[in-house]
Structures are given as C-alpha cells and as structure tokens.
Design brief:
This protein has about 110 residues and is mostly helical. It has one domain. The longest helix is centred in the C-terminal third of the chain and has 14 residues. The chain starts with a strand and ends in a 6-residue tail after the last helix. The protein binds nicotinamide-adenine-dinucleotide. Nicotinamide-adenine-dinucleotide binds next to helix 1.
C-alpha cells in the first residue's frame, strides 16, 4: 500500500479519490486551503466526515518559531532555505527508509 498526497482534498474530485484510495487500504494525506471561491458548505460537510484522531506525540500543534532573534543578536543567517531543507529531509528519508521505518515514538 502507498501513501498519497491529495491537493484540494476537500474538493469534489479529490474527496472522492480519497475515499477510493482509503477503501483500497492506502494512506491519504489531504491538503486544502478551504478557500471560499465557491460555496464552502460541501467542503465543510466533507470535513465533518473526517475521523479526527489524537495527535501523534511527534506532531507539533503550533509553532512560533522565529529565527529573527538569532539574526539580530548573533548575526546568524541560515545557509539553507526552508524549501531546500525540506526537500533534503524528504530525500534523506527516502534514502534511509530501510532503517527509518523502524524508528518509533511513544
Ligand atoms: N468537477 C469536474 O467535473 C471537473 C471536470 C474537469 C476538470 N476539473 C478540474 O479539477 C480540479 C478539481 O475540481 P473539483 O470539482 O474537485 O473542484 P473543487 O472546487 O470542488 O475543489 C478544489 C479544491 O481545491 C482547494 N484549493 C484551491 N486552491 C488551493 C490551494 N492553493 N491550496 C490548497 N487547496 C486549494 C479548494 O479549497 C477546493 O476544496 C479543478 O482544477 C477543476 O477545474 C473538474
């Protein structure tokens, strides 16, 4: 089984695709900005169908991370952009999946 990233997951098409993938045993990660370009009620109804589970211990519910202070006080500036860093992280996980899959958080 695979993990699928669905953009516009609250929308008409992607919500149905998510249902089919989940029924087939796949994992679905849905992304949607829930914009109000059209009637939001169908999106709200689809959200209400979601089964909200407790947060995973590794999930961060909110962050106010700000590197501004380090820059002001220390003159520190990141050498890697967020986008490049995130891409490198994903690539690292792909290359190290063999052992990373066994890492557990309690
Ligand atoms: N429904 C159809 O019959 C049909 C036919 C042909 C093509 N399409 C195309 O398929 C796509 C999806 O259609 P649909 O009917 O599911 O539309 P929809 O409006 O129901 O769903 C689109 C979803 O994308 C979300 N979204 C928009 N911009 C976003 C962003 N920047 N980040 C995150 N989420 C964002 C919206 O909130 C919405 O939930 C559209 O591009 C549409 O033009 C649809």
């Amino acid at each position: 089984m695979a993990t699928h990233l669905l953009t516009g997951a609250a929308g008409f098409i992607a919500a149905r695709v998510a249902e089919f993938l989940l029924a087939a045993g796949h994992t679905v990660i849905g992304v949607d900005n829930l914009n109000d370009a059209c009637d939001v009620r169908p999106k709200q109804w689809r959200q209400a169908q979601l089964d909200f589970r407790p947060l995973h211990p590794a999930d961060v519910p909110a962050t106010w991370a700000d590197i501004g202070k380090a820059e002001r006080l220390l003159g520190w500036r990141p050498q890697t952009s967020f986008r490049d860093g995130a891409a490198a992280l994903v690539e690292w996980y792909r290359e190290n999946r063999a052992w990373a899959k066994d890492v557990a958080t309690i």
